[in-house]
Amino acid sequence: MPESVLPPCPHLPLPGLELDWRHLHLFQADKRGGRFYFACLEYGQVLWQRRLPARAMLCLDRAFGADLRGDEPELQLCPAPYAAMAWIMAHAPEGVFLGNPRVHFQHYAGRMNEPRKAQRAWRSWACWALARVVRPQDPGDPRHEIQEPTLDEIAAALTAHGLRGEVDVWRAALEKAGQ
Question: H-type helices in 70-116, by residue range?
């Protein structure tokens, strides 16, 4: 494997094709269900392997925004990408741009808009909690005046607004991230 390509993230699917940004543009706004979700995960893997962890995380943000019911085969194959998000934050090589994931998720949650605003905001808070565990050295943004939720509040909100079993997927990723 060339040194410039990273080994794959074990929590993301391996793409069957050579992908680029056009891969996600095949999906119209009203067609962002299971196939879009899986395409975001595949492209996130491509970006990760190309040494672009920050862009891979943005792609996973898009996957979290897919319009899913919970019974899609793509979701059964690859559950909500909390473990992938934590893994990318933990394994980003020195010298590549990652930014400050904690601030990213803090801002993203606080500035979320429709569709499914509550669901997507709480997923961002869940990723924020992962960032706090995986990258405790990253400070929050003290100028962004927002009430940071507790883990219990995040869990309750994911139970209320997320997909069935999503809170368990997040808790498992959080537990593993803390080890």
Answer: 73-77, 82-91, 101-110
CA distance 90 to 110: 24
CB-based contact 118:157 (threshold 8 Å): yes
Q: Give, in order, the Cα–Cα distances in Å from 83 to each of 9, 19, 25, 95, 178.
A: 10, 22, 25, 23, 12
Query: Which own/partner contact pairs does 18-25 have at CB distance under 8 Å and 24+ positions apart?
Result: 19/43, 19/46, 20/46, 24/59, 24/62
Which residue ranges make up each domain of the chain?
21-177
Residues 6 or more apart whose Cβ sits within 8 Å of residue 134: 86, 89, 90, 101, 177
Reported as a single tens digit per residue, the pLDDT across 72-108 is 999 999 999 999 999 999 999 999 999 999 999 999 9
Cβ atoms within 10 A of the Cβ of 111, count? 11
